[in-house]
Design a protein that fits this description.
8 helices, mainly alpha, about 250 residues
């Protein structure tokens, strides 16, 4: 390998893992953030981490095909770490989607200004509240801590095996589903109780139009329960960091 490639290999591997991590990461992956800002941010972090993180290989002993495989491995590692964080981050929106389905508002789809995709109003609102609380608690520092600890456990050029990364991403998806249902459980219980009461009234008063009556009551009860739900989102900000520490492979 040429001298220039030997000097740049460590930096490129660090840059690859950081870029792949932030590519799928919430907040930093939003499409309304200019691409030049994302590139500059990734380069600044790569310069910083390349000066302090250990390199698990000797660049002089690496051939060009091996360097390509190492870079591909760094990209895989960064993507896996980013997917784990994204899965946990999506638990709040998932809970909002479950709540909207029970409230009968699945048809009220709006445009998400952050991702540019369609989204449900309740899920988007809850996610916005979570993001504000998360950033207020300096949660963005947690993303940098994830990258730092990943290099402590797996230096550049030495990454966990594919089965380890795959099992971690699968566990994160499972935790996302369980956490989303847990966050939505108070509202689901209240809406279920409402449906039981309406079912009894429908039996007692057969001429009552249960469908016409239930929709505004479900929406009203759901909005009322959202006020009770907000403190649970604040508690999830703390739980978020604990879940990341348990799931991430380091």
């Amino acid at each position: 390998m040429s001298l220039m490639i030997e000097k740049l290999l460590g930096f490129v591997m660090v840059l690859t893992r950081i870029s792949a991590f932030f590519l799928v990461l919430p907040i930093f992956g939003w499409q309304n953030i200019p691409i030049n800002v994302k590139v500059a941010f990734a380069f600044l972090l790569a310069i910083f981490f390349s000066m302090i993180v250990p390199v698990g290989i000797d660049p002089k002993e690496v051939s060009l095909p091996e360097a390509i495989l190492l870079i591909a491995g760094e990209a895989t590692c960064g993507l896996a770490l980013g997917l784990v964080v994204t899965a946990l981050f999506s638990a709040v929106r998932l809970s909002g989607q479950v709540i909207e389905r029970e409230m009968g508002l699945t048809w009220a789809e709006i445009l998400d200004p952050l991702s540019g995709e369609g989204a449900e109003a309740i899920g988007l609102l809850l996610e916005m509240i979570f993001i504000i609380l998360f950033l207020n608690a300096n949660g963005h520092h947690l993303f940098l801590l994830v990258i730092s600890k990943s290099y402590e456990a797996f230096p550049a050029g030495s990454i966990p095996s594919i089965p380890v990364l795959t099992s971690t991403v699968i566990k994160a998806g499972s935790v996302m589903l369980m956490t989303g249902l847990k966050l939505a459980s108070p509202m689901l219980a209240a809406l279920l109780l409402l449906m039981v009461v309406l079912s009894v009234l429908a039996r007692m008063v057969p001429e009552m139009d249960i469908l016409f009556t239930s929709l505004p009551m479900r929406v009203g009860l759901g909005l009322l329960m959202m006020v009770v739900f907000i403190p649970f989102i604040n508690d999830f900000v703390t739980e978020f960091s604990d879940l990341m520490g348990k799931l991430l492979p380091y």
